[in-house]
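Hi there, hope your week has been kind to you so far. Thanks so much in advance, here it is.
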Amino acid sequence: MNKMLELYKVVAERETGFWIGLPVATAETVPRDEWLRMMADDPEHFQLATLTAEELTGYSTANDDVIERAVFVNWSDEKMH
């Protein structure tokens, strides 16, 4: 079974690559394998954000799970579609 990722969108500054705001949850999910294929074709827009459970919650866990989120980046100088 393919792992599903929660999808987020964010706007980033083109020159620095920094996110202008926090990623916004879309309430959608995408198959991880499909997202990785899209990342290979267009890494500027299709990205993965990875966090450990400790980074997300501030607490260490026994298994220290890695949490992945699919992030679609719109660049500040692009027109939104």
The first helix runs from residue 32 to 41. The mean pLDDT is 87. The chain has one domain: 4-75. DSSP finds two helices and four strands in the chain.
